[in-house]
Amino acid sequence: MDAGTRLFRTALLGLAGNRAARKLSERYGMRLGAGRFVAGETMEDALKHAKRLNDAGIAVTLDLLGESIQSLEEAKASELGYVDLLQAIDRDQINGNVSLKPTQFGLALDPDSCYDSIRTVVREADRLGLFVRLDMEDSPWTDATIDIVRRLHAEGLKNVGTVIQAYLYRSVQDVKQLSAERVNLRLVKGAYKEPASIAFPAKKDVDSNMRRLIRTRLESGEYTAIATHDETIIRWVKSYARSRRIPRTAFEFQMLYGIRTPLQESLAREGYTVRSYVPFGRSWYPYFVRRLAERPANVTFIVKSLFTR
Ligand code: FAD
Hints:
Elements: H1 3-16, H2 19-27, H3 43-55, E1 59-64, H4 72-91, E2 96-100, H5 111-128, E3 132-134, H6 142-154, E4 160-165, H7 171-180, E5 185-188, H8 203-220, E6 224-227, H9 231-243, E7 251-256, H10 261-269, E8 274-280, H11 285-294, H12 296-307
Helix pairs in contact: 1-11, 4-5, 7-8, 11-12
The structure holds flavin-adenine dinucleotide.
C-alpha cells in the first residue's frame, strides 16, 4: 500500500467512527450511494435480495446493521430485531444464517447484559436449526468476542462461531486453538484501523498470513469460511484443496453483497458453496465507510453516482 492510499484509508476509517458525519449521512438515506453495498433499510428489502441470491445458487448471511450503540435500549432493539430476522429466515425458507456485531448488543456498555442478549438470539437460532456468526470488530473486542463464543459453546450452544482477522499477529494461534475447540470460523483480512504493534502494516504480509490461516484451518479438518474478494487467493484455495484432496464440502467462499457479484455467481455455478454477506438497516454509515476505505475507486464511483441521477 503506498503512502497516499494509507493516508486515504486512515482518514476514511476515522470518519467511520464520527457521530456527526454518521447522523448527517443516515438522514440523507441511501441517496449517498450506500445502496450499492447495503440491501435496503428494512428486513423486507433484505429478504427480497436474499431470495434473489438464493435463486442464483448463493447462500446468505444477513446482518441487521448497527454497532457501538449508546444505550441498552438499543441493545434490546437489536436482540428483538435479530429474533424477528431468524423467524423470517425460517418462515421464508431462506438458505441463510445471521451475522451480528457484539458492540451492537452493548459489549462496551454492559458485557453481562450483552452476553444475555446474544444468548437469546443464539438460542432462538438453535431452536430453528440456524447458525449465528459473531463478526469481529476492532482489537479492544477480540478477546471478549472469542470469550462469548466459548461460553455459549460451554452452555451447549454450538450453533455459533466467529471471525479471525489475518492482519493481527495473534491470529495463527487463535485459529489453532479455536480449531482444536471446534469453533466455526470465518477467515478475513481485517477491516479496521489497527496499530503496527499488533497488526501487519503491509498488505503483502496480511495476504500471506491470510493464506497461512486458511492452510492451518483446512488442515485442521474443521469447516472453513474463506471471506475474500481476492481472486489470487481464491484461485490458490481451489488448487490447494484439489492437491490436498480436501473436498468442496469442507469450505465455503464468502463475499460482501454488491462486490464481485459475477465472481460469486461463477463460483456457485462451478459447484462451490458461496455465501453473500447481506447487510441492511438504517444504521448503515460505518459499514459503508469501511467499504469505501477498502478501495479508493469506490469513492469515485459514489461521487459519480451523485451526479448521474
Ligand atoms: P483485498 O485485497 O482488500 O481486495 C481484493 C480485491 O477485491 C480488490 O482488488 C477489489 O477488486 C475487491 N474489493 C475488496 N474490497 C472491495 C470493496 N470494498 N469494494 C469493491 N471491491 C473490493 N472484516 C472484519 O474485520 N471483521 C469481520 O467480521 C468481517 N467480515 C467479513 C465478512 C465477509 C463475508 C467478507 C467478504 C469480508 C468481511 N470483512 C470483515 C472484511 C475483510 O476484513 C476485508 O476488509 C474485505 O473483505 C476486503 O478484503 P479482501 O479480502 O476482499 O481483499
